[in-house]
Structure formats: structure tokens, C-alpha cells
Write a structure and sequence with these properties.
Elements: H1 3-27, H2 36-50, H3 56-72, H4 81-93, H5 97-118, H6 123-203, H7 207-232, H8 253-262, E1 267-272, H9 280-300, E2 306-312, E3 316-323, H10 334-345, E4 349-354, E5 360-367, H11 369-372
Parallel strand pairs: 1-2
Antiparallel strand pairs: 2-3, 3-5, 4-5
Helix pairs in contact: 1-2, 2-3, 2-4, 3-4, 3-5, 4-5, 4-6, 5-6, 6-7, 6-9, 6-10, 8-9, 9-10
Length: 374
């Protein structure tokens, strides 16, 4: 028990003792030496009340029995019942039910013994005391249930607040990961193309070929800046106009493949199945997976050709990007990991690894119905 709890119990015992003592003196119209036993009973009940938190069962029993003996003894009338009422109420309200009910039973037993076995029988008086004790215990139980209800409500509110904070942090983390993937895809692809074209411009002796490479560099850098602005725009905390350019999607694969051809990697593009409008997250993820796979092919495949296949199915879309190069491309790099995370976020799968006949193959299957049903 804390020091503050001990001090509050001591203060309660002193206050109740003073109130009962003053009420008794006022009722008897003065302090009489003959009533010294009555005042001792008052002091005993107040001391028990002061020790109730540390010794609940003995304290309530002492308060109850001292009160019962006070009223059946040859003592002056006074508000001694206040001590027992407060002790029983606090015990019930604090959940010390054993103390509350044993103390009440002990007090009633002494009172009943005096009423029915020792003195003249007064059933009405005993019934009144019994009813009064039951009311006190009932009030204590109501207080205990009310405190438990408030505590449970506070616990649920705190738990709901923690859940909201955890959900906010989870969404913030997912958003940061999404932005990181977008930045990686944009920068890795475009900077790789710029690097390849810059190397070509340096080694080509014909001015027309060098100018064509520089033009490709300009277009690629312009596109990179546009996509960076669109990606980083979500981080700004001010109201701005929405970007005028459309979001990357499979409808723009022709432009992506043209830029890859210009970078020196010939690409053959095939579409299979009935072309349909895809949910925006699936469309973006499929485009980014093709983009990243072509970027890796430009970097690692060496002299090679690539193939891009998009297959539309009723419940999912499949994208495949393969090359026949002999580069040292691996399936455990950041780019492959990012593609796999994109697919997993949508409930899809992605496989990447060397092809049996040489080269490298990336295959992703992205479901449609799970996304559209959310």
C-alpha cells in the first residue's frame, strides 16, 4: 500500500472518530466520565476504519462488533453506526467482499444474540438493522460495479486508441514502402536508360547518332522528372492541382518498350486474351513489374533480346518479361524483392530466375477479384 493510501485511511479514521465523538457528546449534552467505555468503543471503531485497507477482514469485523456492542450496551445514543456503515461500504466498493460480508454477519450475530437471547426480544428493531445493513452492502456493490464499468470503458477506449495509432503507423509504413518502390522503379529504369544512352553518345563518332542518343537522354530525363513530381506530390501537405499526366499503366507499355529499344535492348511485345480495364492498383503494379524487369535486363543481360507478354484472364492478369542474355542477373536483388512485394500486396505471386536455355525470366500473376471486392 502506498504512503498516500495509508495517510488517507488514517485521515478517514480520525475524521469519522471525531464526528461520532462530537455527535455523541452533543446528544448527551456534555462529556461524562461515566461514558468512558462508550468513547473507547468509538475509538476502537475509528482505529479499525483507519486500518481497513491493510487488514480488511479484521478491521470490518472489529468495526461491526464494536458497533453492535455499543448499541446493546448501557451506552448513550450516538451516531456510532456511521463507523460500521463506512467500513462495510468501502469493503464492498473496493471488492473486499469477504471482509464486507463476514463483518456484516459478525455484527448482526452479536446484535441478534442480544436481541433474541439476552434482552427482551425486539424483532422489529433487528429487522430494521438488517435492512439497513443490506442497503449499505447493496450501495457498496453498486459502487464497485460502477467503478468496474468505468475502468472497463477506459480500458476499451485506451485499447481502441492504441489500435487506431497502430493502424495509422501501419498505413504510414505501407505508404512509405509504396513511395520507396515507386521511386526505385522510376529512378532505376530511367537512370539506367540515361546511362546507356550517355555511354552510346560518347562512343559514337557520327554526330547524327550522338544527337539521337542525347535526344533520348533529354526525353528520358524529362519523363523522370515528371514521374518524380507525381510520386513525391503525395508527401506535400498543401492542396495542389492533380497531375495532368495519366498514371503509369499497361496501356503505356508501348512507350516503355520504345525507350528500352532506344537503349539498345530489342523487345518483342505480345498481348494475349481479351483486353479489359484493370483496377488501378493492379494496372500500376503490372506496369512497374514490367518496367523493373526490363531495367534489370538492360543492366545485366548484355547483348540480348527481350520479350514482354501480357495475358488477360477473367480473374487475373499475367505479365512475363524474359531475355536470352548471358548476364549475371540474380533473383535476390532489391529490384526483384520490390516486384515480389508489389505482387504480394495485391494477393498475387511473382517468380524470377534463370531460364533453362539461358537468360532470365520474371513472371507475375495478379488477381483481379480480391482487389475489386475490397
Amino acid at each position: 500500500m502506498s504512503r498516500l493510501g495509508r495517510r488517507s485511511d488514517l485521515a478517514l479514521g480520525v475524521i469519522v472518530g471525531v464526528v461520532v465523538f462530537a455527535g455523541t457528546v452533543f446528544h448527551t449534552r456534555g462529556l461524562h466520565v461515566a461514558d468512558i467505555k462508550a468513547y473507547a468503543m468509538i475509538a476502537l471503531g475509528a482505529a479499525a476504519l483507519a486500518a481497513q485497507r491493510r487488514f480488511p477482514v479484521p478491521a470490518v469485523n472489529v468495526a461491526a462488533i464494536s458497533t453492535a456492542f455499543y448499541y446493546i450496551g448501557p451506552f448513550p445514543d450516538g451516531p456510532e453506526m456511521i463507523t460500521f456503515a463506512i467500513a462495510s461500504f468501502l469493503a464492498a466498493a473496493r471488492g473486499q467482499r469477504l471482509a464486507a460480508y463476514t463483518g456484516s454477519a459478525a455484527g448482526l450475530a452479536v446484535f441478534g444474540w442480544a436481541e433474541f437471547l439476552v434482552g427482551p426480544t425486539d424483532a422489529d428493531r433487528f429487522a430494521g438493522v438488517l435492512a439497513w445493513v443490506l442497503v449499505v452492502l447493496f450501495a457498496g456493490e453498486v459502487s464497485r460495479y460502477h467503478r468496474a464499468y468505468l475502468g472497463e470503458s477506459k480500458r476499451r477506449a485506451d485499447e481502441a486508441e492504441r489500435t487506431r495509432e497502430e493502424e495509422f503507423r501501419r498505413r504510414a509504413t505501407e505508404e512509405r514502402l509504396r513511395i520507396a518502390r515507386e521511386l526505385h522503379d522510376v529512378l532505376a529504369h530511367k537512370i539506367s536508360l540515361i546511362n546507356v544512352q550517355a555511354g552510346a553518345a560518347l562512343h559514337r563518332r557520327q554526330p547524327d547518332q550522338a544527337y539521337a542518343a542525347l535526344g533520348a537522354i533529354k526525353d528520358a530525363s524529362k519523363e523522370t522528372l515528371r514521374e518524380l513530381r507525381a510520386t513525391l506530390g503525395v508527401l506535400r501537405q498543401v492542396d495542389e492541382a492533380q497531375p495532368l499526366s495519366p498514371a503509369p499503366s499497361l496501356d503505356h507499355l508501348d512507350e516503355l518498350i520504345t525507350r528500352t529499344n532506344d537503349a539498345g535492348l530489342p523487345v518483342r511485345f505480345t498481348v494475349s486474351g481479351d483486353r479489359a480495364d484493370l483496377p488501378a492498383p493492379v494496372d500500376l503494379a503490372a506496369y512497374r513489374i514490367v518496367q523493373e524487369a526490363l531495367t534489370n535486363a538492360v543492366r545485366h543481360a548484355g547483348p540480348a533480346t527481350a520479350t514482354v507478354l501480357v495475358r488477360y484472364n477473367p480473374d487475373h492478369v499475367v505479365v512475363e518479361v524474359g531475355d536470352d542474355g548471358a548476364g549475371a542477373e540474380t533473383s535476390d536483388g532489391n529490384g526483384i524483392r520490390g516486384m515480389r512485394e508489389r505482387a504480394a500486396t495485391l494477393g498475387g505471386t511473382l517468380a524470377a530466375g534463370p531460364r533453362p536455355g539461358g537468360g532470365f525470366l520474371v513472371r507475375a500473376s495478379l488477381p483481379l477479384r480480391t482487389v475489386m471486392s475490397e
